[in-house]
Each structure stands twice: as structure tokens, then as C-alpha cells.
Amino acid sequence: MTDRALGASQARCCRAGRSEFSDDGGPAPTLEPVWTPLAVAVAALSLVLSGWAGWRTLRNRPVILRQLLFAGVIEALLLVEVVVAVVRSVLTRATWVSDHFRAG
Fold first, then answer.
1. What is the pLDDT of residues 29-85, one digit of tens each?
2. Which of the 8 DSSP states describes residue 28?
3. Taking the model in full, what pTM does it have?
4. Contact criterion met (CB below 8 Å) for 51 and 43
5. Is 27 helix (H, G, I), strand (E, B) or coil?
């Protein structure tokens, strides 16, 4: 990679307000692979479920099937979030490698 290309890459990153490189010279770890709307949905649904379970606990009621099914939906969303994060991370890494280590 030429100095000019490296300088353009660093300038592009600095304009975005983040560092593209970690201390070891590789790409800096970021939260870019996490899809924010999905993460917010998982957090919100988890809060709803914890409030619902807390309310039933205060009333001395047992866990019901609907709560277990709701927890299953949250876990399914967590699995989707993991898959999305892995795919986006792999694609980001592949793009970074192809952008920075082109032959010629």
C-alpha cells in the first residue's frame, strides 16, 4: 500500500470521527456489526419481561406459559442479533482487508 493510499484511508477515518487502526496495526474494534434497532428491541423487550415477571412476583403468582413464550421470542431475537453481528463483522473485515491489502 502506498503512503498516499494510506493517508487517504486515515483521512477518511478521521472525518468519520473514529480510528481505523488498533495499536497492533489491525482494524480497530468497533460496534459497527451490531444492528442498533435490533439491540434496542432486545433491550426493551427484556425490560418489559422483567417488569412483568417482577409484577407477578410481587403478587405472589407463578411464572406462566405466556412469559416463557415471550422469553423464547427474546432469545430468538438474540440469536438473530448474533448472526447479524457475525455476518456484518465478517463482511466488514473482508472489505477492510480487500481495501488495504490490494496487490499493486
1. 555 666 788 889 999 999 999 999 999 999 999 999 999 999 999 999 999 988 888
2. P
3. 0.59
4. no
5. strand
